[in-house]
Prior knowledge:
Blueprint: H1 3-19, H2 25-28, H3 33-55, H4 60-68, H5 82-87, H6 96-123, H7 125-162, H8 165-194, H9 196-205, H10 209-225, H11 230-259, H12 263-276, H13 279-309, H14 328-332, H15 337-374, H16 378-382, H17 384-417, H18 426-447, H19 452-483, H20 579-593, H21 615-633, H22 638-661, H23 672-685, H24 722-746, H25 755-764, H26 769-784, H27 787-795, H28 810-832, H29 837-860, H30 867-887, H31 896-904, H32 910-920, H33 926-935, H34 941-956
Helix pairs in contact: 1-3, 1-6, 3-6, 9-10, 10-11, 10-12, 11-12, 11-13, 13-15, 13-17, 15-17, 15-18, 17-19, 18-19, 18-21, 19-21, 19-22, 20-28, 21-22, 21-24, 22-23, 22-24, 22-26, 24-26, 26-29, 27-29, 28-30, 29-31, 30-31, 32-34, 33-34
Amino acid sequence: MDIKEKLMSFIDKQKISLKVPSLPVQAAEFVTSDEFEGRTAVTAQLQRKACLLNDHILTREAEQAVIDSIEALYFESDNVDVGEHELQKFPDIADVHIINGMRSRLRKQHAIVSRRVSDLIMQKQGQCSKEMERVTELQTEVIKGVGLCVEGRKKLALGRSQFTSASLGILANYSKRQKIASVIRSLRMIRTLQMTDVQLQSLLKAEDYPGAIQLLLECQKAAATFKHFTCISELSTKLQDTLEGAEEQLDVALARVAANFNEANYEKLQIAYGLLGKTQTLMDQLHMHLTSHIHNSAFTIVLGYVELYNSGGGSNTGSGSSFSKLQYSDLCKYVNEESFLPCLLDLSKCMWNVLKSYRSIIKWHENNVKVAKDDISSEAEADAEVATSRKYAKQKLEHGLYRIWQDVQAKVRTFILASDLSHFKFDDFLRILDVINKLIDVGESFCGSKSETLRESIKKQSINYFRNHHRARMEELHMFLENEGWEACPVKSAFSIYQLMEYRFLKGKDMNFTRISTPSSSPSKKSGSNIERKDVFDLFSRESSPFDIAAEETIEEDIMANGEASDPLTLSDDDSDDDVPEELKRDFVDEQTGEPPQPHPKRKLDHGKTPIVTNTTLTILRLIGKYIQMMRLLQPIAFDVMICLSHLFDYYLYSVFTFFGARGELDQNPSRRLRGSLKKIQDTLILNPDASQDDPSEQDKVQSPSLSPVVDISSSTSIYGLPVRVAAVESLAFLAAQLEALHCHIEPLIPQQRRTFLQQFYTGTVKITPEIRHHVYTAVATQVIDYDGILNRMACVKWDISDLMSQHSEYVDVLLRQLQVLSMRLEEMSRVSPIPSEAYTALWECIVRITNRTLLEGFAGARRCTNEGRSLMQLDYQQFLMKLECLTAVRPLPDRHLVETYIKAYYLPEGAVEEWVQQNRGDYSPRQLTALVATMTHISKRTRQKIATLIEEAGKKPQ
């Protein structure tokens, strides 16, 4: 008994014990245990049945649990004896409780299964009715079909009975007629086949290749159809020979299309080869013809130029015809300098045509695929052979891009490296670079190649060329400087470097010039630009090429002033030129009478605005323009070119300073930056006369220039060479200004990691031009005024006076007279030699600064001084300033505060003197400070000694 049956028996016992009344004890004594258990089981069974059928209703889940507990045996379709199966479950010792439990369980399962089957039947009853209706309808249709079959058989029997032999005769005659017509068609076809050759040649001559191939194929098919005729066998052999000849003509036409693409002819060839089933063969033959055309055309072009310019034969050849036997690499060596550029242009145009034809072929296939996708048919799409041919053509064309370009590169590289370009003219070499640059751009647009082969070859030639070219230009510049007369060229007032031919590329007139960049650089990032670069092949028509404009050289310069008004100095409408000297003299007379001078604010000098440039300056500007073009065209050596460009300006600056700036004694000490720049130029650029000529480090240096003997800068008549000094230093300033303006064009050409040199060049050399101007004009300012005479006159003045007079000292009048005379001379000179306002102002600044320093030195020379003497110094200086402001428009006056502060320092109290000395010891020399303290009688000896010690310590410190 399983645990479930035991549990059920236990529950039944509990129920019976609660419901059945207890038997008397006496009766229990006579009842055995088996009997008791039997009765108990029967009673429990009755109770369970009543409970199952009447009281207890199972839920859906409980019913499903009961169904799941049914053994799989009951669901098998085979004949299975379930009774035997259940009997085998009985225990060896029969137990009525077990049997009743098993029976109860089976009944419960049977009742639930019966109920579930009944429910399912009720659910499917509607569908069963519908199916029965459909069966009835089908039976009706079957009956109708049987009727139709019976009727048809009746009609068929009627037709068979009415069929006669006349109908069969008609059919037999018709059959004979068809056979005779077939024979006639065969005869006509045979006659057509015999006349095919003439028609085929006519189609091939008219370049109707698809029609010719279609005709041949149809003839072959017809010949195969009528091969049972004896006359057709010989015709089939002739058709095969004709087909082979047609294929040869197709190959010739394909070679022409490869060299010069024609869309209509190429489409015909595609159809013709497609009819032959040789579209893959077409692609192979096409690439073979392209390669052959590149080699043959390159050899033919070079051979033509070699024979044209070497009609007598080369040094190693016996006659002009022998050139054709040379290899291409050997033939290129016979191209001379005169024919190199035209030959390169023709070679590049030929390569351009080949590449453009190839691009047109690719474009044709792309358009053909798009059209096929738009107008596709189910049959064409299902054709696997067509799809395979298109895939093969696409792969072949893509792989052929790089191979074709490599062949082009190899031909051009061989041509470039075969000649020595070091002796070419610079413009010709730039044009060669331009052609190569455009060819590299073409290659990048063609297949995305960086053209390392071409880059390396032109870089090698460029380094060799530019080294020799720059050395020659530096020697030429040395010669120019030694023969320079330092006179301003008569250029137009609106002259600009963009008017020079060498700078046309910056104005867009030579935008056809492209650059060779390093393969790793990117455009645009290369140029930090995000603009998509246009395809070179889309910019030119069928007949044009990027190499057509390479020979344009028709623009002429117009920079010289021809008859242009060149008077650089004019007066205002209120005054005339003749009144200038009289006004200056009248100012001086007023000084003698002590009357206050009458200022003339309306008299203004209008200095010329025409740029001052010398012949050497123009030469350097042209060289700079060419160097920038070289940098643009060949970026890999742009930094080397920039170094050479800096040498041009450095050498000119060094020459101007050496000629005109390194003279004079007063206030002529160069600043630390200027000294460093000049020392660097001298070490890197100026040839050491004691160095060996075989020293590699001295080979790229040039000799220090010497001033031309015809240039006089020591004569007082010419104000110590002021016109030539102005021309030199202002042309240098103009050159520096142009370099500043060109900075935005130069910087993008220099690699990012090398731009530090460019910054150092501008800050260390270009921007020290104002200091050069200061030194050059100071060299003049130190000589135009007799400063020693002024100092001697000031030394004779007694500064220890007790009474102050209202009249200033005599040296002031002498100094002002010299300044007035200088002003008149400058004015007269400016009528002949233009003096720009910048130069005029800079010269007066130098004169005023040196004059103030001279007055300061004279005031410091006073050994004894009183308060009245100090007041006389102030009176003299104020008189000097008042007259000086009428002579020059320089504001503020340089070093004015130094003189005024020095004079007023005399009145400082004893406690403030030491602090003043500490604050101003950098502005005055130790001798000036010592002299000032020595004249202060109101300070004690101890304080004087202390200040003297402070001044001495300050004088020992390095400046």
